[in-house]
Amino acid sequence: MLQTWLPYILPQHILSKLAGKLSRVTKERTKNRLIDFYCDLYGIDLDDAEHTTRHDYETLEALFTRRLKPGVRPISDAAIVSPVDGIATTFGRVANNQIIQAKNHHYSLFSLLAGQPDWVDSFYNSLYMTLYLAPRHYHRVHFPCDATLKAMRYVPGRLLAVHAKSQQTFSQLFSRNERLITVFDTELGPMAIILIGAFLVGNIHTTWQGNTNPDHARKIRDWIYPNVKVTECGFKKGDELGFFTFGSSVIVLLVNKQLQWSEGIQDGSEVRMGQSLLD
To answer: Which residues are the active-site residues?
Structure first.
């Protein structure tokens, strides 16, 4: 229980900055020890990674943000695929503005989307799925379908841990934590992908913006993309969206009344990037 509450009482943002600096140490002996400690602690499997030898990574952060070998995650022909390697913790359809966080814990769509009224109206009855990226997972996020970027909002917040025990302990966890909301148009309807910050996760990057909060400012930031050519804001299923510099969570919202999540996926199911999320 102390492990769950510890991030709550510690200076989360200061520790995340320090962890970020430590993860970027390049001195060979130090970074190799850090990499060995991390790999042994979390049981990191590098067989599918672009570099399969631990010490080939220049920094611990490079290991966190490792890429996969081409072709090791086949992209399903399904309409929606998993954007990450992770664990499906909760999923369903938004009901009465509420999303299930864990057993006996809900949070509001309104708070998750930082009160943006157009988005709340658009995603009011959407499908949702929460995917947890544990420290052992591949940390890059991909597009679950073809999509055109419309808007993005960075929302400052806490950096509470987002593992299963935290989800069962802290109310309103995902709407309290720092997060990046990305909104897209798709052939299936509007889609939002929300990248949730967490303890020791101080940076969220996108392929089009880079680090979305490089100066660690504690303020909302908005980006709107209404006049940019589709070729510059269009993405294909499986394209890279961005990455975390440590494990965290991703929430997918999709407005489509005809689609349903696969019955083969249960709470706690492991999913891999590119696999179908639909029946």
So the answer is: 85, 142, 248
